[in-house]
Amino acid sequence: GAGVSQSPRYKVAKRGQDVALRCDPISGHVSLFWYQQALGQGPEFLTYFQNEAQLDKSGLPSDRFFAERPEGSVSTLKIQRTQQEDSAVYLCASSPGYNQPQHFGDGTRLSIL
Amino acid sequence: QKEVEQNSGPLSVPEGAIASLNCTYSDRGSQSFFWYRQYSGKSPELIMFIYSNGDKEDGRFTAQLNKASQYVSLLIRDSQPSDSATYLCAVKRGNNRLAFGKGNQVVVIP
Known about the structure:
The structure holds 2 protein chains of 2 kinds.
Chain A: E1 5-7, E2 10-13, E3 19-24, E4 31-37, E5 44-50, E6 53-56, E7 65-68, E8 75-79, E9 88-95, E10 103-104, E11 108-112
Chain B: E1 4-5, E2 11-14, E3 19-25, E4 33-38, E5 45-50, E6 54-58, E7 61-66, E8 71-76, E9 85-92, E10 98-100, E11 104-109
Parallel strand pairs in B: 2-11
Antiparallel strand pairs in B: 1-3, 3-8, 4-5, 4-9, 6-7, 7-8, 9-10, 9-11
């Protein structure tokens, strides 16, 4: 596709369930980022991949959050034992390389009941 | 102190007027600055980036950077109803991540 694709667009889960969010970056983009956006706030950085290497995971809020990009293309963000405070929009962004502008997907809106 | 501050409340401007948005950042060593536009329920869309002090113009948009004062601004000339959105200021930090402000909502009144 032409842009960053994220699925699902909406996810509702009960507290304690595990969820997996998918990001398909723009073809050929080396860098991939995950951000979390709470209502009325700007996106907050979670983690960064260059190809398949996770170079920065300093923004992950707890060890319940895990991200992978095993083949350097599609990425999955997994949240285990979800809590209500995990409710947010999760945005994925990709860029052609280091120091290039980032392009965002439409996000996954996660609601934890 | 937050890395990026956008403190203004919602901005209402008449159609055809100039909308002015401001942003300050805390790290004096920051080099790259971005403005994203975000419509409700949509992804942030890059509209401007600026790396050097001074002004950068692209169509109806002008970004202004003053590294000595640590602020970056965005001007929207001849505002249109389609410009109604939230505008996010972002600064590139270590490991290529972006630090965002909370955004400023702009409402263009026809």
